[in-house]
């Protein structure tokens, strides 16, 4: 007779087999893309799915190359959207973690299969993407500048904070005549992207291909990061510079994945910070507009509650100054 413990062991073993199958499939598919010279497709995938690992990006591209916005079923339900009938989820790998005696996460224990669905596979409430709208990066550029200064700052081993100011960059950007708002915003995020890239490839831990092995690799990485960041943030794009992957020695492919990982990491750091700061800017603007509407109604005597409730709302609500 199988006990609960026996069943758990079987489940773990089956999960390990399934995740290895997916992992191997992702590795093979990514290798096929490199061998076939599909650099553009790899980089395009990072525009929408840079937060996913290279393995998961390969799995997404293999199963649904035209996907644009992915979430699990529960996440879509949270946004008031539901999976259409007969839709098949996209298999991806999701990490699992061990817990200590206090129930706190204690470390990575393995992976499990996690199913994602594209927005095209769902229906329901209108969905508002976190992606920036045209003109939003410039609209909130001051807050973005301060946030990106934090990205460029770090602590030394002895705890000393090394800060980095973007004031000179901003002054230079705004001193150039004839630039559009989008061009000024792009200049800021690309300056930060370039600084992060130089820091990454200058690190002793970097193990990707260098320019002695693949000429112009730094220029290719820079072009890729700029392409991802500008397209994701709805700014004016740049032409993507692609390497001749078909002419690359096969033994270089594994190390080239490290270059791809740096491209993904740097672009995602910039995109995540800008999108977060734009989201905060949107919320602050909504609060400001709501408070203005509230005060206008109050001054006109049109609030649908008494003075005591009005004062409480004015002082304690998120719309208060």
Give the overall shape, derived from the CA principal axes: globular
Content of β-strand: 5-15%
Figure out the total of helices: 11
Number of domains: 2
**Mean of pLDDT:** 88
N-to-C SSE string, H for helix and E for strand: HHHEHEEEEHHEEHHHHH
Helix content: 55-70%
Low confidence ranges:
1-7, 316-321
Reported for the largest beta sheet, the result is:
3 strands, antiparallel
Radius of gyration: 24 Å
Could you tell me the number of beta strands? 7
What is the structural class?
Answer: mainly alpha
Strand order of the largest sheet: 1-4-3
Distance between the termini: 66 Å
What is shown here, in short?
By secondary structure, this protein is mainly α.
Explained architecture:
There is one protein chain. The protein is mostly helical and 321 residues long. It has two domains: 129 residues, no CATH class; 191 residues, no CATH class. It is built from eleven helices and seven strands. The chain has a three-stranded antiparallel beta sheet. Strands 2-5 form a two-stranded antiparallel sheet. Strands 6-7 form a two-stranded antiparallel ribbon. The longest helix has 47 residues. The N terminus and C terminus are likely disordered.
Key features?
disordered N terminus, 321 residues, 7 strands, 11 helices, mainly alpha, disordered C terminus
What does the secondary structure layout of this molecule look like, with pairings?
Elements: H1 4-35, H2 39-49, H3 54-63, E1 70-71, H4 73-78, E2 81-83, E3 90-99, E4 105-118, E5 122-124, H5 136-139, H6 141-152, E6 154-155, E7 161-162, H7 167-175, H8 181-201, H9 217-232, H10 253-299, H11 307-316
